[in-house]
Structure formats: structure tokens, C-alpha cells
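Protocol step 4 of 5: obtain the predicted structure for the target chain.
Materials: sequence only (see below). No template structures provided, no constraints applied. The aim of this step is simply to have a reference model before the mutagenesis design in step 5. Sequence pasted as it appears in the construct record:
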Amino acid sequence: VALVPSNIAALPAFRAELKTLGRELIAPLATGALGGLVGALTLVWLGGNLFASAVPYLMGFATLLFATAPYIKRALEQRGGTRAKRGAITPMLLLFGFSVYGGYFGAGLGQIILAALILNGYDDFHVTNALKNAVIAAISLLSVAVYGLSGAVSFPHAIIMMLGATVGGYLGGSMSKRVPQDALRIGVIIFGALLTLYYFFAAP
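Step 4 output (C-alpha cells):
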């Protein structure tokens, strides 16, 4: 909950990238919001143990998927003879599933959403990164609304963390645009691998 402002605060830094998408924003944002709502309701109704033991495996899968997504997409395009179509049903279902996870738990969500968007046909990493922040913002807003209404959030504590997340999100969004796309990809893969190892060893 406390990290929600980080993705929202990053959006102004990506105005130009988001503007190029136009109406293409609608489908992934709606998918993310719906998935986040389902995930949050699942957590409120069923408790926090559903995904807990699966987190290391989900993170490992997401890291591997992110690292191989461009090659998978290229192979599918070569087999089908056409470029990946943005908003195609199968990648959008994958995005929905990841969004449910984001609304429920959310560890490593940025990397997971990036992988789904690459498979959805988004090639430019900076544009994909911008859309990732927008999708996670959509996931988070509805999730926070559910958690807030259910009384599960300690807002006095969360607000303090939100202030730091807002500053970090804006600065991170601005700085990421100055980093070459290949360097960003490698950094995300390394971070994902380290996070996967952490959750494997930290898992109960």
C-alpha cells in the first residue's frame, strides 16, 4: 500500500512515452485494474497464504520469462509470419493473471508486468517501462481501495512511507530514461535473479 505513490509519481516522467500509446493504453490499464481488484478481494476473503509458498517460483518464472520474452516473441512472429499484435487475447490473459497476483501480493511485480508487456508486442523498453508503471498504478489503486475499506491498512504508518515512495518514484522514472535500454534490461534480470534467491532462502 505504501509503495503505491511510487508508480503514480513516475508517470509524469514518462509523459512522452505514454502519449505515443494513445488509445492502446485502455486495454492493459483495464486488464490491470480488474486483475488487481480480483487479487485484493482474494486476499481479503481467503487470507495471505494462497501465494506465499509460490512466490519464489513465481519470481523465478518471471525473471526467466522477462529474459527470454523478446526471443519468444520473435520466434512466434517468425512462425506466424506477422508481428505480435498488441492487445492479443493470450498475452492479455497472462497480464490479467499477473495483475491478480499484483493485487494479492505484488513482490517483484514490476518485472512480471514487463515480461507480459514484451510478449504483448511492446518493443521499446522505455515505452514498455512507462506502460508498466501505468499498469501497476491501475492495479494498486483498486487494491488499496479494497484494503482501505476492509480496515486492513494502518494509514498513519503508510503515509510516512508514501512520502518517500513518491520522491523515489519520480526520481527513478526520470533517471531510468537516461539509461540505455540494454543496460536497463540487464539490470532488471540481475535484480530479478537476486530477488528470486532471496525469496527461496527466506521462504518458510
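Step 4 remarks: The radius of gyration is 17 Å. The longest helix spans residues 55-80.
Proceed to step 5.
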